[in-house]
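Spend some time on the protein that follows and explain the fold to me:
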Amino acid sequence: MRLPPEPPFDPEAIPTDAVVSRGGRDLRLTWANGEEAVLPAETLRLRCRCAWCTRDRLQDRFPVTFEAIAVTKIDSLGGYAVNLGFSDGHARGIFPWVYLRDLARETAEERTPQAA
């Protein structure tokens, strides 16, 4: 079996710094290229892709908001992702760095007013 010549993920998506701030209300990310992002804990909780959250979405049982939610832990997973824990006890989601980078870009675009 031949291994791929490069890792199966984008190494440039791995931030140089990932810090939980504002009492867990935000996850601040910084990349080597100077790009920075702030992801609110509520956005992260709403966008969890774990099997439990996916099932609850399919069954229309997933909450619309997570008011006052906070990130309570951030654990590295093999260099390609992090496992985030939240103040509601949820800690099943795996958040690949590529997903977090794309989510940060998406939320930044949503906050930027579009030119007419």
